[in-house]
Amino acid sequence: MNIAYISADFGVPIFGYKGASVHVREMVAALRQAGHAVWVISPAIEEREMERLGERVKGREGEWVKGRISPHLPLSHSSSLRVSHAIREEAQVAFFPVHPSQERHCQLFKALDDLDKFLGKKTRLAPELRNLSYNLALYERARDYLLLCNVDFIYERYSLFGFAGIRLARELEVPHILEVNAPLAYEQEKMRGLETKELARETERRIFCESDRVIAVSGRLQEYAVSRGVPESRIHVLPNAVDPQRFAPLRPAAQQRDKTVRAQYQLEDKHVIGFVGSLKPWHGTETLFEAFRRLHATAANTHLLIVGDGPGREELEKYAHTHALDGAVTFTGNVSYDDIPQYLAAMDIAVAPYVANENFYYSPIKIFEYMAMGKPVVAGSIGQVEEVIADGETGLLFEPGNIGQLAAALAKLVEDSQLCRRLGEKARTWVLQERTWENNARRVIAIANELMET
Prior knowledge:
The protein is of the alpha/beta class and 454 residues long.
């Protein structure tokens, strides 16, 4: 099939570190590996990253191989036809950065900046109206090109105010499938503030209801889509997943050869407890640090490895220094996604703590990656995590925010290597059966086929 994949969110860099970025890349790769041609359209395709990657796309065996990438929309009709034909024939991936109209947006931003100065208050009108007006740029620039591509359906990652994908699908007379990873109108208002609340809510309702099918990454998001007016029969729950070839335990012989992370951070003789992710409040790293402090007081051979970066890093570093944990905690900063398996391989225990949240709608990729690596996982018992981890079978659960429970779970695993091995093996077996990007791609194609047959 020929698939147009739209991610219109300026905050989701296609080659970035975020879980959202990983999701886009892995889903596109899985579709390509299944033999489909994919055109990725986004305002957040980093030109420097494309230059660094050269002409590389993810191959069938999971590695990056030579392929055909078009770095921009071809300008001429003839070149459009040549590129489109090549992408289809070779089942490749084309990345098309579609940026906002410079003239239109410069005028808009200047007017909004002048308005903020006049009001004496910095508002969020500029980014909100940028997202809204981007619909025109996306629609105008992608329409004619996609007509040449003979696209079978449009797959879109939901973005706030992102209505252009549906307009394009109607123009092309093809199905539109919407992937919903978060209730963005609610999330934006709660976390950053939202000036155009009613417009955002109404646009979200229209996007949800006018899409031919909605894919929700969690049961909580399915409920949210129903509350926005989508019939339950048009919603499919499809959680995030993992590439089991990229995230695979090292065999004993390979473990002896590949100790680069442990050697780099002088962890060879340590019992390593690890976390991978952005250092933001909802991940619960503060709980992890306090639980680790208690554990380390009685198990001096333990070490905490924090892989990732974010706004909470400075406070966590202060905590480690204040509590004399400087030598027992390592912050790696951001790490290339291709290198994450090496860091997971260096861990004995992997943690996803989280905080108490009555509206936990996430589908945590990190947990699937932990499990695929055969690591014993300790996680906060919340939302989809409770569905993924069978307590005592494929991992250990604790009440989010409960420092004592987390410390006890970590201590239990530190003291019992057999339990660690058993939990890790069962976790990998489960995730390979239930949560792979290959399976997700297969489900999406089945949904598209069903739509095209009606």
